[in-house]
Write a structure and sequence with these properties.
Chain A: It is found in: Cell membrane; Endoplasmic reticulum membrane. The complex is a heterodimer of chains A (229) and B (545). By secondary structure, chain A is mainly alpha-helical. Chain A has helices at residues 2-23, 26-29, 32-56, 70-78, 81-93, 98-125, 133-160, 169-180, 182-192, 197-226. Classes of the chains: A mainly alpha (229), B alpha/beta (545).
Chain lengths: 229, 545
Amino acid sequence: MTLYHFGNCLALVYIPYHLTYKYSGLSEYGAFWKCIQAGGIYILTQLCKMLILATFFPTSDSSLNGQVDMFGEILKATVDVADVFGLYLVLSGIPGKGHAKLLTAGLGWAGAEAVLTRFLLLWIGARGAEFDWKYIQKSLESNINLVQHITTGSLVWLWTRHDLKKSLVPVVSTMLLLASYRSLIVDLFLANTDFGAWTSLAIKAGYTLGLALPTLKIYAGIAASIGIF
Amino acid sequence: MFYEADEISEIFKGVLPVYLLFILPIILVISPCGAAHEFPVYRMHQFELHGVARGCKSAAVNLEVRSISSWRTQRHCVISRIGNLTSLSLHKLAENTGALLIVLPKNLATASSKEREVLSDIEVHGLTTEIDVPIYFALWTPDIEKILGDIDTGSSPEKGSSAWNAMIRSFSSNGYQIVVNTNKPYPRSDAVITSIQGKLPGLGVEEKLPTIVIVTHYDANGVAPDLSYGADSNGSGVIALLEIIRIFSHLYSSKRSHAPVNLVFLLASGGKYNFQGSKKWLEDQLDVTDATLLQDVHFVLCLDSIGQDNLYMHVSKPPKEGSSLHEFQKIITATRKSGVDIVHKKINLADEILAWEHERYSIRRLPSATLSSLKNHKDPMRGTILDVSESVNPATLARNIEDIATTLARYIYNVSGSSQALSSHMTVDEEVVKTWLDFLCSHPRAAPLLTDKNNPLVKSLIDTMSRFLVDVKTSALVADKRDPDFVFYDSSQAVCHIYNVKPALFDLFLTVQITAYLAVVHQIILRMPLIYDMMVPSVKKVKSQ
């Protein structure tokens, strides 16, 4: 039954990606190759991030005595801003029109992440004779990440628009910061409380949804005004 | 998602190489899968003595884990704390379950009286017969505590509960699978029992002098060989022997105190297996024509478990007035403040198993006695895993050794009077005793574990004896091929894996849940345009901009 369980987890991770690809109209544009390109840029970005982390942030034993080195953690999380540049590169480098452009970038990015971070984990973990809810939770988390990356992509796109209303610029900037520091904020929050794994998953989902809905609202507004449908 | 299979196959054809389809499943099959709980377990002792098989017969386990209250069939392995067992339930378990894993307290020295009672019951009764199911022992860890807690709550459905409850429970229950991968226990044909002998020749012509033999066995015994540290039985005897050797080698090295008595020391093994080491040594010494070592033996003194307050002198027949043993008994009673009681037990020739080591010598008509703190030869403390180094007080042991050494010295030099008359080297240092005790108890000392010729413990014992004695020899005893007196078995220790498993039904249930979830996601993605339209500001507003 372990292979069966592996199949369960795999379905949970990858079917939402496929559904998004299929029913959001990307398949009609033949955007598969573009998604792969976005994924390639994701890999490059991660490599750069790793290089920076390895060079400038030597493993500190700050968390040895239970104390979290706040400043170091914030600096480390700042490296995640590279993701925003990566997404910007994807958006500017990959041709596309309207909604499809954003979806391609987000889906390719999140898809590459899901393949690279989840597959090996499930492969080794979920196939063991031992059952652990962890793998189901990781699979669900990657679904949340899909929404998160599409949102971040949209925010980056909005931020680069010159015809964004002046009053919305600080809102978009703040949301962009919140999106790129998401893992730090959520992790810090969870470290100071003792929620179970399921609650923390719900908190992550809530955080992502809290960013995604306003973003969609702003995007819809600007898209309507410049005539993307 | 599978409606348009063309496209999926297109993806594979166009982008992913087709061979991945074949390679991935192969890698899947060979990829490793680890267990979360892994800890060492110690198998119950298995051995044969005089052709009678004793202890636990089998080793491999691959069964479902159940608690002591919820097991039903032979397909279950029961895990229980030793305190939760009783001798009655144990008997039932050993006959009807598939396997038994007994959790011992983390520190055996702090075991409660109930735990001690159950354990000694297993040790006394379990090791006299053959048991078919594998019985393992594990020391307490937090991991095991968690498993114990889980199997206690997730026990099988009670009779009154409804079918629905039973079903829910079968979905949600946390099952465990225990796997102990070992080979079938195999008799060790190369098992060697090594006894070490050495002597201090007396002043004069060696062959014409009387001899005193001091014997002790150095192996330990217990329900699991790998947990048998045997501090009192018989680490204390070994320490006493080594200290007596040290004292008398010092006395004999000076001309003034070199007595006309030969001292022979024997560190025998196999003491828990009907004193095989002594038996072999006696055969070697007596059954050859030019035997000189045991020609004029005053007495043979065996030391066995002398780490407690009392000392008893066990003899096979009461020593006659005027005999050397009687003399020795008189002196030791005078030396010890609390006195030494004589315990007289006739040798039961009908029983193949001898009670004390001196009986081996008494049978061969050598005057002999055993000194022990235990009054009864059936005392469970003579072979238990509870006999760890904390159970012996070094101060008490040092005092006992000093008394025995003083008695010997008085006997040899024929002095009577206060103990102060003896050399200052007669004192036994408590620190030295403690160091020896820690050393001897640092490794399990069951005879099956010491059968290797180059065993470091045996080597260091030989080294220590050669430092003080002359003519140090080892005699290796290998059991007879056709009719062995003793047979040891391997795989006394194994690694136990415990997997957290869910019933097969649970995976199906999970699939249903995942399908439902994916259906919801599908619907949301399909309705995305509607959600989007709701977000789009009304046309008026757009125009006004």
